[in-house]
Structures are given as C-alpha cells and as structure tokens.
Fold these 2 entries.
Entry 1:
Amino acid sequence: METFAKAHSPMLHELARTHGTPLYVYDMERIKRNFLSFKQAFSGRKSLICYALKANANLSILKLLAQLGSGADCVSIGEVRRALLAGIPRYKVIFSGVGKRDDEIEEALRENILFLNVESFEELKRIESIAKSLADSRTNPSPESTRARISIRVNPNIDAKTHPYISTGLHENKFGVDIDTAKQMYLYAHKSSMLEPVGIHFHIGSQLTELSPLIESSHKIAQLARSLVALGISLRFFDIGGGLGIRYDSETPIALYDYAQGILSTLSGCDWTIICEPGRRIVGDSGLLLTQVIGQKHTSQKRFVIVDAGMNDLMRPALYGAFHQPILLCENGAESSTTNPPMPADIVGPVCESSDVFCRDFALPEMQGGELIGFSNAGAYGHSMSSTYNARLRPAEVGIYTDENGAHAKLLRRAESFAESVQNELEALESNCPKTLESH
Ligand code: LLP
C-alpha cells in the first residue's frame, strides 16, 4: 500500500485537488489480483467466490468483480439489488443476515437468487410461508420455481480469536444455530414442499489471522453435512463464509494456499461446491483514504495534527481501535524529512467526539496545513461504514486502473453535495409547511 501510495503521489495530489478531501482512492488492479488469488487457491475444486458486499459495495468495484466471475454475499435487499445491478448473475447471489424482513425475503425469492442463508427456525418457517404465498399467487407454478432454496448458518461455538465486535462463531453471539437445531431444521426443510435445503454455512468472525479455528469449524460442519447425507438430505454447497484478515499493522495474514488446503482437507470424499465469502481480503488493501491536514494544535501534554477526515468517513479506529497506517504524501513522491522530529502527534478529525482519533503518538514532522496524508488499507469497511454525522458529506471514491498505457483514474462516486444531503428533508418541509418556506 505504501509503495503504491508513494509511487502515485503526484496523481493522488491531483485527485485531491480535483475531487476534494477526504477522498477514497482504490487500486483496482489490486482488487482484481486479490480476487484472482482466491479463485486460484480453490481452483482444484468446484468453487464459487461470493464477494461480501458489506466490505465495499461501490458499483464499479462490483462490476469489476462480476466481470471476473464473482458471486455476491449480501446482507440486505439493498445489497442484493446492487449486486444484480452491477451484473452479478442471480444464480451467484446469496442472501445472509440475522434479521431479514418479510419484504426482503419475498423480493429475494422473486429474484430467484441462488439461496438464502437461514439464521433461525423461526426464520425458516417464515421463508416457507412466504414461498407458499408466492406460489399461491402464481398460475401453474412448477415445484422448481416455487421452492425456496435455503442453506442453514450453523454456529460451531468456536472462538475465532479476533476482536469481540467481529467475532461471530460462539454460542453467545446472535449468529446461526447450534448443531442440534440445525439438524432439526434440515429435517423440517427436507419434508416441506416449499423449501429446498441446498447448502450449509458457517462464518466465525472477521479479520482472522489464525487458521486453526477455521479448520476446526469446517471439520465440525462437514461432519454435520455428512450426517445429513445419511438421513437422505444431500447438499450441493458448502459455504465457509469470509473472515480472512489483512495486515494493518504487524499481523501475519493467513496464506490463501494454506487456507484452501486446510478447508479441503476437511472435505475429503465430498462433492460439494465450496462457496467462500471474502470481503476485506478482496478490497481492504486496495484503498487509501486521502485527507488534508487542517492544522496543528499543542496542549501542555500533546501535539494534535487535525485532518479533514473524521470518524464518520472511516469509523474503524473509533469503533474497534483499528490502526490504518498514515502515509505522508509529498507532491514529488519523496519522503518527508524526519531529522529532528518534533514530539509525536495524535492524528485527529474534526468530529465532536473524543474517539475521533485516527492514531496516537505517531511520528510526524511539523505540519503547516495543506499536507496530504493517506490512511492505508481503508478499502474495506471504510466508505461502506461511513455516515453523515455532524452533517458532514460522504466522500467521493476514485478508482485507479492500470493498463498497458499506465495508470489512470476514474471517478466511481462523486462526493455528496450539501444540496443532495438536504433535498429529502426540504421536500418534507415543503409539503408539511409550505408557508414557512415561502417566507424565507
Ligand atoms: N460472510 C459473513 C456471513 C459475514 O458476516 C462477513 C462479515 C463476511 C462474510 C465478510 O467478512 P470479511 O471477509 O470481510 O472479514 N466492520 C468490521 C467487519 C465486520 C464484518 C462483518 N461480517 C470491520 O471493519 O472490521
């Protein structure tokens, strides 16, 4: 990331001038390479990589992944719509999530996506009754077109050894069902004329850097899937979720080859298509959040470098204490001088929260204001988790594409404008009290 940022420093300055800061910039070539590495790792098996949109659902990124053959793992009907809009075929789209509304389930069934990952017995019965009403409303429905294809998310009760906010594979977490409940659900679905169990799923957490909990989970869930075969329920898809971590600081990411081989070792003799749902590992290290230094502030104890990006633009540091290495970008690409460095600084944003801190005690030269800093590895859960808190406007997104003619930038989403941000409320205001507005 640092090499990319420094090599493209003049272009990044130009982009910051054109589109303003804060600004997300993605290395599209890196996204492509990351996706192809996943495909390569599982190439010996029938497999489908379903990119997890929650990491970054920009349509241009989705389109690029669609062209490479990606499927989509979605957690809301909005994500399903985005995936389809970007050209990901419906038979590669799966819909997961612990709280699906009836209207979302109905739309997903109408769209005839690959399957829904079910999170509880209650949800299974809800899906069944929605599928039934859909079938009743159709004339001459064929069984294939009316049965809802489902997979069950099983919670293996295994500690993924990651941040507690993004750990999902323990029974204390809200996700999935235990093995006994899963068995009962499969038996129920198998007997139902409205449900077709086609897959089994687990996902134990995100930013995982230890392989053994994943392998242990896969082993446990494969055992369950084998026991289902013995009951006459044969599945087609073995969905191993996402969760592979990247290097933000000093972590050692799991090698994709070891991951794939480890998972495959638990599936010997089985013919299921493997589905995996990576998000962060595809886009995380492609993204840079560019921000401009507003100025410095000294207190008796501290030096603060204040930048124009805030926790609303990139909330991972405030929410998880995450580290996104700041890279000081000089216009000519040269390293900035660090002789006689001043006291380390906290890099902070303008949001009215004490948690609006990107990093603490970081070695930076004196800042005049106007310098450009890039927060690295911000491609995943950066823009997708951004908000408009403090009436701030969501930043623009730019992709850098590389071909035989070199690198060129394309705008993927322009920055939100103030007018756009108030349009909806102005309309409400106008229809609720037209006179008030006229008087202004
Ligand atoms: N599949 C399921 C069922 C998931 O819950 C998730 C992530 C993924 C796939 C993709 O996981 P990944 O490969 O990206 O680790 N906002 C947090 C991460 C939340 C992850 C939620 N689930 C962060 O910024 O670290």
Entry 2:
Amino acid sequence: MNGKILIVEDEEKLARFIEMELQHEGYEAGKAPDGRTGLSMALDGGFDLVLLDIMLPELSGVEVLRRLRKQSDIPVILLTARDTVMDKVTGLDGGADDYITKPFAIEELLARIRASLRKKQSTAAPGGDVLRAGRLLLDSARHTVFMDDTQLELTKREFDLLAMLMENQGIVLTRDRLLEQVWGYDYQGETNAVDVYIRFLRSKIDDAFGVKYIYTVRGVGYTLKNED
Ligand code: CA
C-alpha cells in the first residue's frame, strides 16, 4: 500500500476518476463530497494526504484548510479551478503543501502526490530539534518559533523556510535549493515563491523586532546570520 488519500471534491465524476487512478497506482482512496465531511474525515485520521478542492459546498476548501491546520500537518494539495496568483498565495500561505490547477493531467497530479508524501517522510521529526539563531528559537517538535519570549505566528511554509535557513546559518542557500527543500522537487509553481516568502519572514522577524537576520546575497540567494 502506497498510502491512503482523501479526495475532497464535489464534482462526483472527477472525484471518481481520481479515485480510480489512485487505486490503479496502489493507493487507498476515500472521498468526501463537501467541505464539512472532508474536514471531519481528514481530522479523524488514517489518511496520509488530502486532495482538497477550493470551491466546495458547506465549507470552502480554504476554510477547511484553515481549520485542519489548527490540528494537523497532513500534506494538502489544493485543486483549484482559478489560476490566479492571489489564490495560490492564499492557499499556500494557508498551509497547503502544493496546488494543481484544473484541468490537470493525472500524471502531474500523481507526481505532486509522490513528492508531497516523500517530503512528509523526509521531514518527519526524529525526536524534535531545537534550533537557535541569536534571539530566535525554533522548536520543530512543538512547531513553535519564539523571538525572546514572544511567540511568532508563522504559516507552515514560513516555518519550513525559516527552519531551513536556521539549520544552515551563515551558509548561502540558492533559490533553487530552497525551492527543492521547502516546496519539493516537483514544484512547478511560481519561481518567485521563495522571494515572496522571504518577504513574509522579514516582515515578521526583522521588521517586527528591529533586527537583521535574513540577508539577500544578490544573484545567489539568501542566508540567515546572527551578528548580534
Ligand atoms: Ca468544486
């Protein structure tokens, strides 16, 4: 068994098609026809990944994701019919691991699923490391970040990006490396995603606390340094 995947999709034909393809690939699949059912099935556990449509009855995909992320870090791939940058940023910032725009080729969806599941395995925290950089403290087991005594509110993606920078303090990480490590090898979205998320982190860390931790190395990438 490759894993158990929940399909939250109100278009019955599309849901059935994905279900059949997943089963053909050796996955177990479950279906939910609306957001409310999808949320409770995802929270009940037993699934390894959620495919989440955005336009859903009862609860929208974005709202399902928001509520799900309060209790679970199960990988979520958004299925979106609207191919706008705004939706992607909202979805990814809301804690989705990836998105795919409808209509999509099933091979592409399968590749995204494999990448998300691989990434989940490779990032499964062994014990729980605590990373420090100056006044910053990141606890991967508790999924918390503190600046001194103040807890930062970071999205999943911001957290993963910061963890990567803190693990490699003083080392310049290229955009490609950050994309691969934080977004996944098969990521095919906007290449400026790294710059966008670095901006988010700077506003929550450097700007908010009057420090300078995150440096741009022009033409190369980014590094986190603590020169206190
Ligand atoms: Ca829909």
